[in-house]
Request: fold
Amino acid sequence: MSNPADTPNGQPGLQFLVGAVGGEKIKNMMSLGNPKQAIIEFAQEAGLDIPASETIYGLLDTLGYTRWNIHNSVLESTILAAQKHIQNVSLSDEDHMRLLGQIRPYLSIKRLRHLPLLLMAQRPDLITDDIRMIIGANPNIYSQCSIGVKQVLWKHDRDLFRQSVFSLIRNYTGSSELISMAREISGARAREFAVSHRKHGALIEIAHAVGNNLQLYMQMLGMVREELVQKNDPILGTLRSDVVVVMQQIGMTEVVKDDICLDLVRALDASILRQSIDEGCIDKLRVFFDRFDDDKLPYGEIALIFSDPYARHVLAQYILTILEDIAPNADVSTRYDDLRYPNQVLSIGLSAQEVIDKNLKKFPKSNRNIKNKFYKTLIKSIAASQERDHFDNAAKKPQTSRFGFTPAIAIVSAPTAMEESKLRPDQEDLDILSESELARQVLYVYLLKRVTYLDLGMLNLWLPELAKIVPSILGLSNDRDALASTLAHLDLAATHGSPHGPPSPPRILSSSNLSAFELDAFVQSLITQVGETKGMVSVILGSMLQGGDSVSRNNASKIAAPFVLFLDQAARVRHCAHEQVVRFLTHCSNALFVESTGVPDAGVAENKEGAIYFIFKFAEYAAASYVVDPQHLSDLKRRYSELVAASPEQAFGYRICASNCPNVAKFIE
Reply:
């Protein structure tokens, strides 16, 4: 290239002095004067021969450079100059197209490809059909294009758009970090994750891919619905709402304002961030639905939005709030009718796959037995909890026990045999729980709340009932090899000395299965809440190891605690539950270490030997017995490593190693 010269329209341009253009200039110079002299002058002005070049090459040899080095350096300088020119020059449409035509051949040259792509990124609207075909047919070129260029391609090639955005959608829904966040049903972490999960890179890419193009936005929403029909993955509901929020945050409001479900997303988002739904939010939901005639209602989009786990979990908490208001005066309460609307809304989210797949023009109704039977049973437990909470708050706080928990809470919260018989759900309740995800979600949030009150008694009442229906929840009722019958006790000595243990179940359900996802969510949230509620780990440990000042290893190996038996039943078929068992044992190790180091007012655990034996033998039992999903093996190994780190040999007098815990050792190699 020569220095810029004026173009006919007065704009600065470039004279290409190589190839056909350079050849034409030489011909003109030769025709206007002495041909030989013209060639000499042209070579001096624009040739690659440098005066004394042989001497210079000799100098390069002396300095250890090759001719390739100098030519490569010249090429790099030329490329940088061209890049700078493209970035800084302002071209008319005509000049832009002329330059694009000149450098278009560079698309096939890997080292120069970025130059035409850089020019096209400035004016994607001027990309010609032939260039679109070249890019669309070459994945390597396509991957280097800017979002603006890709959007132009997508407008003309729907399949290319689907291929690109489906990849981003699956990146988002397949993120183990996002799945773990969505599993936190309630509490401080759920509130924190409601914000932080929107920073995921794939979500930002989806928002930018759509941009302010309504056509692409609608195509993207259709793809999310398609994916939900195929996989029934709850995270897709989160994606539907997140895209709207993120696009607003980054200023892409032109398309979002045309989303007919915008007000619905906003109302739910505010409640999710607060981690609570109030009457104001319910009123906004009613106003939204009232805007549409029944035949105009966007049923699929509404169901997709309500399928978001974050939305469903706050709806379940709202239902629990109503039940708590009913409980003190259950016989005369006027709030039973208030359950109808949130029940219906939660049912919509739980039936999203069916609504979209069958293109239903009417939302499925919730099971009446949930309100008429199951809720009344749950209200009895809630009323009993409220009475005990009132009693516990009025009682004087006694001294801390050997495990750091308050005996009054542990004892008062445990129902008597007579109370338990009145509160225990009957077979009809269990049938409802087995069939209804809605009923289970309300029970989940109730039990998680009882953890914050150290109410182990109520957990002991309900967790065995949940353990009984784990097979039916997961659709394994007829799979006798997949799950053992609910045990009267867990024999941790069963795998002693065995490096293999019993075989893992042959089937691993996908976490995207809604019922499996919610079971995982409850187990994870349960362990989170136990770990974050001061004293709860010690309450559980103490309840298992009661039996005197010294607990023998034989007694410690046979665990009848409902809390542990529930975890055992879930971890036999759910990888997530396996991880949470190890996480629970890590919480136990941390609590025991604090006790053992003599923290003021905590005291040293008198049942230290039994507690240590339980932690290490349960870990060994878990490593031998529980299901492992190879796709999440690294996460499980991390959990076991955390357990080892929380169990220092100097404090426990025992360590995890190949000789002591051969099954655990397999996960920490």
In short: Residues 107 and 113 are 5 Å apart (CA to CA). Residues 368-394 form the longest helix (27 residues). The mean pLDDT is 84. The radius of gyration is 34 Å.
